[in-house]
Amino acid sequence: MTLHEMVALAAQHKASDIHIEPGLRLTFRVVGELRPAGDAISAAQAGELAREAVGDDSWDDYQARGSFDLARTIAGVRCRINALRSMRGHGLAIRLLPALQPDLETLNLHPDLRQLVQREHGLILISGPTGCGKSSTLAALLNEINQRQARHIVTIEQPIEYSLRPALSFIRQREVGRDTPSFEQALLDALREDPDVIMLGELREPSCMRLALNAAETGHLVLATVHSANVNEALQRLVLAFPAEIQASIAAQLADSLAAVICQRLRYRPELDLRIPECEILIATSSVRNNIRQSEWFKLGRPMETGASEGMWTWDRYRTWVEARRDWYRAPPPASAGEPEAEPVPPRSAEPRRVARVAQRAKAALAKSVPAIAPSAPAEGVLEIIPPEAELADILSELENSTARRRKK
């Protein structure tokens, strides 16, 4: 089975991930559960699949590092791929991304999230466990800006998962490893590129976190993801990433620059056959900022319980909204594996349309001024008048034949 066939099969069964490992069966993750399929994959086959995914140009880099991240379209599906070496040989972890440009509606998220990106500056964190849809939510928020505001958006990702199509905004997307050596360098570059919005695929290193806080403080809207189980843990993890002697100053800087934190997880609803995101949302009010400044993380739950009017959500209240909702977006079914992908239709030129309009006017004029005549052989050197119901092709053909007869004469 080729990589193309594997991805097509995964899309057909609504799988979110594909796992390939030598000696083990091909495994899909469907609605959060692992499901093996087929026979065990040999080491040689896994190596061929890894080389097909990585490509000859990047194979040497993969061999040197032992892993490689990339994003590409396979079988019509946008995929995020991690190629790796393990004790068994070459392996692949492939995440299948939604085919559509994500927005709050297609992701079945609450429309209140749209208010978060109306801010001019500040730090917005999207958190949650692995595989909960953080990248999709991040892309949806950027699309909300793109569709409604004329702003300069710079994204820094590894790899680029969603290719954003500019609407009102001016969008630059940079991939770490291909376009820039590191998140830190790309963020330093972005601060000199006149951005309004900066998106970071993930906050990993303290140096990158510090630069993100500085950017949010200096008038930019910064969106980034972190791994955590809840809002409190996301903020605490960011502060504790720094040495103990500067954690107090980092907490103060975070309190001043924070705009909001979204923590999300996916819950499968069998009656809908959908995985629905559930969110916990914290808005940086004055009381929240004070708690962060004092590193009183355990007190952040209270503002979320009482801050519904300010756009805050607890897990329980958000779940109540989910259970009351009835209009869910459902992605269209994927095309079958054997079905060829449709080729894009080239734009029609204005010239054929102009010729068609001229022909229609000519035919209308003929209908008014010339009566229809019975077909007969035309006399030598005489142009036959075509009946008005004739097609343009017939008229042009007769003109060519008449010209040819005159040339022979």
Q: How does this model look, in words?
A:
With 409 residues, the chain is α/β, with parallel strands linked by helices. Helix content is 36%, strand content 24%. The protein has helices at residues 3-12, 43-54, 56-65, 134-148, 183-190, 206-217, 231-240, 247-257, 286-293, 301-306, 315-324, 350-369, 392-408; strands at residues 15-20, 25-30, 33-40, 67-74, 77-86, 89-96, 122-128, 152-157, 170-175, 197-200, 221-227, 258-269, 274-283. A hairpin with a 2-residue loop joins β2 and β3 (33-40). The chain is globular. The termini are far apart.
Highlighted features:
409 residues, alpha/beta, Beta-Lactamase, Rossmann fold, 3 domains, six-stranded antiparallel sheet, 36% helix, globular
Basic shape: globular
Distance between the termini: 67 Å
Q: Please state the second-level CATH architecture of the largest domain.
A: 3-Layer(aba) Sandwich
Gyration radius, rounded: 30 Å
> Low-confidence parts lasting 5 or more residues at pLDDT below 50?
336-359, 365-390
Number of separate strands: 13
**Helical residues, percent:** 25-40%
- Any idea how many domains? 3
Q: What is the CATH superfamily of the largest domain? A: P-loop containing nucleotide triphosphate hydrolases
